[in-house]
Design a protein that fits this description.
Elements (H helix, E strand, L loop, with lengths): L6 E5 L6 H16 L7 E5 L5 H10 L5 E4 L16 H6 L4 E4 L2 H6 L4 H13 L3 E6 L3 H5 L3 H12 L5 H4 L3 E4 L13 H18 L2 H6 L1 E5 L7 H5 L6 E4 L6 H8 L5
Parallel strand pairs: 1-2, 1-8, 2-3, 3-4, 4-5, 5-6, 6-7, 7-8
Helix pairs in contact: 1-2, 1-12, 7-9
The structure holds glyceraldehyde-3-phosphate.
Main location: cytoplasm
Subunit structure: Homodimer.
Subcellular location: Cytoplasm
Amino acid sequence: MTTRTPLMAGNWKMNLNHLEAIAHVQKLAFALADKDYEAVEVAVLPPFTDLRSVQTLVDGDKLKIKYGAQDISAQDSGAYTGEISGAMLAKLKCTFVAVGHSERRQYHNETDELVNAKVKAAYKHGLTPILCVGEELDVREAGNHVSHTLAQVEGGLKDLPAEQAESVVIAYEPVWAIGTGKVCGAEDAQEVCAGIRAKIAELYTQELADGVRIQYGGSVKSGNVAEIMAQPDIDGALVGGASLDADEFVKIVRFRDQ
Ligand SMILES: O=C[C@H](O)COP(=O)(O)O
């Protein structure tokens, strides 16, 4: 049986300036240092303006916490005002980059085609994309949540070679559960995550799909993380609001203790 190391990632969204970021990561590192958390990968996704400060801290103190960006340009360089390239993120030694978060899809009209180009840009620069997918409330109510989400997975991975797809992280985030306090039931989330794994097996191989990590995101807290992580096809969490509270995020990382 394939063992997948859980990935607990905090997506700070547009919160915490670079000074607050340093204090926050120091707090996380201190709180996590007193107990072995080797079996869980921990990452933070700060705003772009914090990344250099986080890199300096992580490098300087040799922290095990990984970090990444919340978005990436599909372009390599040039006249794209406001965009940040994969090369820039790689230079800051980012490990991860979130791609296609629902807030990017909703507020910046990101399509599956653009998301796919961003996934490819991430790999081009040695970054691991966290491909975010998930349905809106009306889609869930119409019973089309699985097909909708699988279409986003297929679109995001289009023409991606197996040697890249094998390391992709998929984050299933039902849009109606993001920041609302409404958690998708663990079994409902499992249903979709199992579907995602089956779709990846169909696109590639079962062996490849068995190694891909699938996160759940949407109002994850210390109080519900254990039940979510107990699902066989859920390998981590993409945590928004609760990741801004260092003590709460540490509890989420230590989901096995909850
Ligand atoms: O990327 C994280 C998700 O959007 C979840 O956010 P949330 O934990 O605040 O619901």
